[in-house]
Design brief:
The protein is of the alpha/beta class. It has helices at 23-36, 51-62, 71-96, 106-116, 121-132, 147-157, 170-186, 200-216, and strands at 11-16, 41-45, 99-103, 139-144, 191-195. The longest helix is centred in the middle third of the chain and has 26 residues, at 71-96. The protein starts with 10 loop residues before the first strand and ends in a 17-residue tail after the last helix.
């Protein structure tokens, strides 16, 4: 079960992909479709989604000494933000029956810090699971784009200086893209890979189709949260 002691009524959908893949845009489209289907929807992001998480995000992405951050520190900061997000936002929402749409989740650490930063996968996986407890995505959608497209989109949208993650070189992003595709191939029951070079509306249709096929038939309607809810993540 994704949560100890209590069976969640909701579904967790994580969106993954390289920088500039279009995850945020597709999360907004899916949230709108789910709301029209009368579903309770929560959208969040990593790192962030809580006050503590947003402060950690600022350290990871915008700290003036960020380029000196070692890979181990980066991994642990992501995990800390994720642990807070799971317990403060995601787990309670799942218990009441909401669809939670997360812009990144633990697979980002597997790919970015494990594969991209060359950290040993054993410790990365242990830290990931410690952070999330038993809360795992019911569906993970990878918006896949070639690295050249990803970097071009990053440059196009960067009105100011690119942030720390956006400043990585092409070799790093090649490893990130390949890492996601390997994960998806190994876990087809959870992952769906969608071509991010298609038209925005076509990608949205493919995302919606995957959600309907895999989750909508089994998802239960949301219920009002109890006055007091104890969540063990």
């Amino acid at each position: 079960m994704p949560l100890k002691d209590q069976k969640p009524l909701g579904k967790l959908i994580s969106f993954e992909g390289s920088e500039g893949s279009g995850k945020s845009t597709q999360i907004a489209h899916l949230a709108e479709r789910l709301q029209k289907a009368k579903r309770d929807v929560i959208s969040t992001r990593e790192p962030g989604g809580t006050e503590i998480g947003e402060q950690i995000r600022n350290i990871i992405v915008h700290n003036s000494k960020g380029d000196e951050m070692c890979a181990e520190t980066e991994l642990l900061l992501f995990a800390a933000a994720r642990a807070q997000l799971v317990r403060e936002v995601i787990a309670p929402a799942l218990l009441r029956g909401a669809f939670v749409l997360s812009d990144r989740f633990l697979d980002s650490s597997t790919v970015y810090q494990g594969i991209g930063r060359n950290l040993a996968m054993g410790p990365v996986n242990q830290i990931n699971r410690f952070a999330v407890g038993n809360v795992m995505p019911d569906l993970t959608i990878v918006i896949d784009v070639p690295t050249s497209v990803s970097l071009a989109r990053i440059r196009q949208r960067a009105s100011d200086l690119p942030d720390r993650m956006e400043r990585e070189n092409i070799d790093f992003y090649e490893k990130v893209r390949a890492g996601y595709l390997v994960l998806a191939k190994g876990l087809p029951e959870r992952f769906v890979v969608i071509d991010g070079t298609k038209r925005e509306d076509m990608i949205a249709k493919l995302v919606w189709s995957a959600v309907q096929e895999r989750l909508m038939k089994t998802a239960k309607p949301a219920r009002k949260p109890a006055k007091r809810t104890t969540v063990k993540a």
